[in-house]
Sequence to fold (815 residues):
Amino acid sequence: MKSRIILFAAVSAVSLAATGALAQSKAAITAAAAPAAAAGGDVDELVVTGSRAAPVSRLETLAPVDVVTAQALQKRGSTELAAALAATVPSLDFPRPSNTDGTDSVRPLTLRGQDPDETLVLINGVRAHTSALVNLNGSVGRGSAAVDLNTIPEIAIDRIEVLRDGASAIYGSDAIAGVINIGLREADHGGGAEATFGEYVTSPKFFNAGARNITDGATTTVSGWQGFKLGADGFLTVSAEYRNQDSTNRSDLDPRFTPKVIDSRFGDGSVQEPTIYFNAGKPLGDGWELKAWGGGQERHSETAATFRAANDATQNIPSVYPNGYLPLINTHSNDLSIGGALKGEIDGWKSTFSIDYGWNNLKYGVEDTLNPSLGPTSPHSFYAGQMTYDQTVGNADFSRDFEIGAAGPLNVAFGLEARDEQFKIGAGDPGSYERGTVDPQLALGSRGFSGFTPDNVVDKSRTNVGAYVALEDKLTSWFTGSAAIRQEHYSDFGDATSGKLAGRIDVTPEFAFRGSAESGFRAPSLQQEYFTSTSILFINGIPYDTGTFPATSATGKALGGQPLEPEKSKNYSLGLVYHHDHLEVSVDAYQIDINNKIVLSETLTGSATGAAGSDALAIFNLLQPFGASAARIFTNGVDTRTQGIDYSVSYRLPTDNLGDFSFLASANTNDIKITKTPVTPAQLLPVPMSLFARQNMIRYEDGTPPYKVTLQTDWSKGPWGGTLRSTFYGDVISPGTALDGSQDVHTGQRSLWDLEGRYTLPRDVTLALGADNLFDVYPRQITPSLNTTGAAPFTSFSPFGFNGRFVYGRISVQW
Fold:
């Protein structure tokens, strides 16, 4: 153990040297290694993600990598990075959940249908920090804690590489589904500014309200960047963005009361967020370069909980809210990231030392609410507590080419990584969590969002160190192979080993096969190990005082909890690549097997009378000493198999008279099956109960599209330009509680069309007008028999949301 502590300190000390100066020049340790090529021809995009060898063209990689340029991200109305990225890469999905507490503000992005925390995110090639949030409610990604991509402004980005392949052997934990590597803009001169305004102009037809014309969700985004010289050969690029978004509401009339009114708010919350980022570099002489980057964001969002009816004695005091009330949840997110890298050569070895610090803090407040147990004098607003996560990562990476044959050099790479993480929970106001004496029979806490209690307070940390060795060689003129192995040690659960083999056969200079096999892992997050809260959870319309407990807590152990272990994965892929003149084709099939997956268990509910069965009585007896009537824990034990295929075809067509066209057709098919689920230990209940039952299984297997197809045409002629995009989504299922599936909700198969037109004036001023979801398509509406209050007519599982047509205009200028 002492040697590991020394290793951690040594790597950190070496990496700290990278922060003594400002930055590194435009060298290729980041994803911004080369200019973007025109779609469909003249492939000159160099890719660094997924390999420790020298950058190669994106069509010469051993694994599939999508390259998304800043220009591609800007050809739509949304200025959210995650939304724009999901619209560009078919294997990515970014739903828009509502009424899911903090998840409304920190929405999850998934790759190939895997959980959000099974995709690793890098910034300039260095591991990014996750959000403090752990997704607890019934949304895609339930139980995960992932990176919030929307903390990075689009204007700061040069390009993004999306590696669609397992990469734990190269990068460590989390890279089961793949890797998203964000390369920041690098410039020592010039600049640009952009202003976008848009809003939803939509005409949905509801079961109760009928056809309605709605204009809401007005969003204004103002951003800009500027490059500066650092001496004669360095650069500093500063980018800033401010986004102001109004809320949307797609709730229907509430049929329970007369007159019928819309008393709920189901849609996107309001958001105000300023963000600033920088990226800088400076050569130091003798071949050494230094780089620094970082940024921060302050986000305030306001979302709504469910409406509390005036006549609901468990939720309302009529003398306080005679017409009922709608609690509003305020989420304040502060995010910081700063890193540095030093790169040069030591005795022929290309050497990179880097360090990065990331911090995220979420503070919760709830307004327009009350704690009924406190009686009529209850406050109407509460501070509900906070969560904080931070990490420090230090890396030392080395690589060298050895000439051992005629075909190509053998690249040998090795490196070390050390990481320190902390997770904290702070308690809210007493009124936000306590059960008062006025009416102590009522459920505890503030309605809409119950505060963290003193018993929920957490302050935990851990460290890990890892080491890897990677080899890559063009063994013959037609075969390139690579191998990597990585060993990790975590201070909480112990060791993890991963390895990878990959190869490429170049049949001709234009046609090649590629494939890989990897054993990977994902470490349990600190949030999954230690998150704890007590809140009100509605199960079949009945409120339960529900605790979410660490598996190793006294309550967790009473429910059979065990210390969390890492997930283990096996990835297999086989694909082909073809390019000729302006045509590019790639097809990649894959299989991802995950064993011992970490999930948030079913909520085990107790009954003091035993009327609900012997299991409920046994659970009550287990939970009673801890003051809860229902509980859930994080647990290992789910096994899954995912099989799918990624397709991409692009073609560039220059013409003499009509302008230049580029066509892109890309698709993803994805099938997920759960092959094993955990049950309660035999000694816990008379009849073992599933800890991951039907709702959770369907949420995972069918909560993301079984297929997604994107067809896009870009056209330019002189100052004119345009983009037409169509996206086809397969049917997604939002599971109901009925075991026979009668309450399941299907989004239906849907196709959306986006259209944008552009005109560039003199002095590089560009005007754009467009519409996302041009034909105002919605997912299938939930029937009144299931949506009895009119509150939620659409499922939050819709992969394209449920807000309808978004119309926008944009003005941008470059100098």
In short: The domain at 2-814 is CATH 2.40.170.20 (Maltoporin; Chain A).
